[in-house]
C-alpha cells in the first residue's frame, strides 16, 4: 500500500476553473443528481433544468446581481488539447478571468464513453469535471460577508487529482480578494474522509455545537401565515 | 408556578416589523453586542458600526442588490402612542410595507431608562426591540433559493411577548411570497429552550447529522494562495 498515485504515468491535460453560464445547465443538473445519489438524498431531490436555469441565471435585471453577490457557480473543466488560448465565451466573462493549470490526469474507475460525450457536448473540447456552487453569507460578529459553499462536486472518475482543491481554493481566493472574513460549508457527519480532509489538509474548523434548523413545506406555509 | 404571565395586565403598544435603514446601525450594533454576550462569544466579536454600515448598506450600486436579494435586516420596534399612520421614512420603503400589530406588553426584568432612551433615540416614539438578519441561500436539490436567518434577537425586557415570532414569521411569509423552498438557521446545542421552541412551536426540523465547517484567518489566507 505504499505506492503513490501521483507517481503513475498520467495524461497531461489543462484544467480550468471558470464561471458557469446558462449553457452549462444540463451538465450541472446531471452532476447534482449524481451528488444526491452519493449523499443518499435522492428522496429530497426535486431539481429540474428549468428551475436551475431560472434561479441561477435569472433574466429579470432586478433579480440578477453580478456574480459573487448572489448564487455563483464555478465549473472545473478539462481539455486534452492543452490549448491555453481557447477563446470561447466562458473566457470572456468580465467578472472573472478563468484560472488554468496543467494537471497530470490519472483517470479513475467509472469513465464511460457516453458520460464523457455528455459532459463535453458542444464545449470546444472542454469536458466538465466538477462544479462548486456558493453565495455570500454574513457574520454579524465580524460585520463582514463571507462565502457559503452549498455544493462541491467532482465527477467520480476525476477525483483525487486536486480538482476539488482547485475549485475550493479559487473560492477562498475570491473571498480574500473581496475582503471577506470566512468561507463556510456543511459536511454530513458520516463522511469521515471529507471531515479529515477539511481539518487536516485545509486547516478548517468543524463546529460540532451548531445544529441546522429547517422550516419547509407545510410547516413553512403555516408559520408564514401565523400573524394573519 | 401556575400563574400565567399572559394574564397580567400589560400596556397596549403597537409593534411594527419594518426594513432597517442605515440610521438603525447604532441600535443594531448594541443588540449584536448583547447577543454575543448571551451566546458567550464575545471573544469572536469584532463588529464595528462602520463595518456594519458599509456591509449592510453599501453605497456602490453594483454592490447593493435590493432587499431580500442580499443581506437584509428587519427591525421590530414598539410605539406606546398606538399611532398607526406614523409617516416616518421607514414606512415609505418601496420594497416592504411594514407589518403592524397591537400587543399587550408585559415588560420583563432589565428595563433600564438609559437603555430605553438609546433604543428610541430620534425614532418618533418608536423604540427598537429586536431585529432579524437574513439573506438568500440556495438548495441545489430543490433548485430554489431560501432564506438563511443569521441572527434573531429580541432585547431582554421584551422577550416572551411574541416579538421573535413576529420577526421570524415575517421572514417566512416573504419566503413563501418569493416562491422559496425553505427558511433555515442554526442553533447552538446547549440552547435547549430555543430548540424545543423551533421543533414544537414552529414545526422546524433540526438536522443533527450536518456539521458546519469554517475556514478563516490564516488558514483562509493560506488556502487562497494554494494554487499560486
From TrEMBL, chains A, B:
Gene Ontology molecular function, alphabetical: N-acetyltransferase activity
Stored InterPro entries: Acyl_CoA_acyltransferase, Diverse_Substrate_AcTransf, GNAT_dom
Keyword presence, Transferase: yes
CDD domains: NAT_SF
Record Pfam families: Acetyltransf_1 (PF00583)
Keywords tagged on the record: Acyltransferase, Transferase
UniProt keyword Transferase present: yes
Residue stretches making up the N-acetyltransferase domain: 66-228
Name of this chain's protein: Putative acetyltransferase NATA1-like
Amino acid at each position: 500500500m505504499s505506492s503513490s498515485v501521483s507517481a503513475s504515468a498520467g495524461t497531461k491535460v489543462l484544467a480550468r476553473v471558470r464561471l458557469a453560464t446558462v449553457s452549462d445547465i444540463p451538465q450541472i443538473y446531471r452532476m447534482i443528481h449524481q451528488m444526491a445519489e452519493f449523499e443518499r438524498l435522492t428522496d429530497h431531490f426535486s431539481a429540474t433544468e428549468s428551475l436551475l436555469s431560472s434561479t441561477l441565471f435569472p433574466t429579470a435585471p432586478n433579480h440578477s446581481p453580478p456574480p459573487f453577490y448572489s448564487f455563483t457557480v464555478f465549473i472545473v473543466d478539462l481539455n486534452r488539447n492543452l490549448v491555453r488560448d481557447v477563446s470561447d465565451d466562458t473566457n470572456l466573462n468580465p467578472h472573472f478571468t478563468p484560472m488554468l493549470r496543467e494537471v497530470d490526469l490519472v483517470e479513475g474507475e467509472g469513465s464511460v464513453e457516453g458520460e464523457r460525450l455528455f459532459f463535453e457536448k458542444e464545449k470546444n473540447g472542454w469536458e466538465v469535471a466538477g462544479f462548486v456552487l456558493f453565495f455570500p453569507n454574513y457574520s454579524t460578529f465580524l460585520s463582514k460577508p463571507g462565502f457559503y459553499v452549498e455544493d462541491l462536486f467532482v465527477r467520480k472518475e476525476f477525483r483525487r487529482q486536486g480538482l476539488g482543491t482547485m475549485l475550493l481554493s479559487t473560492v477562498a481566493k475570491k473571498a480574500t480578494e473581496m475582503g471577506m472574513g470566512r468561507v463556510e460549508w456543511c459536511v454530513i457527519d458520516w463522511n469521515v474522509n471529507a471531515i479529515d480532509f477539511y481539518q487536516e489538509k485545509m486547516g478548517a474548523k468543524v463546529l460540532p455545537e451548531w445544529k441546522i434548523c429547517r422550516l419547509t413545506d407545510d410547516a413553512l406555509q403555516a408559520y408564514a401565515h401565523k400573524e394573519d
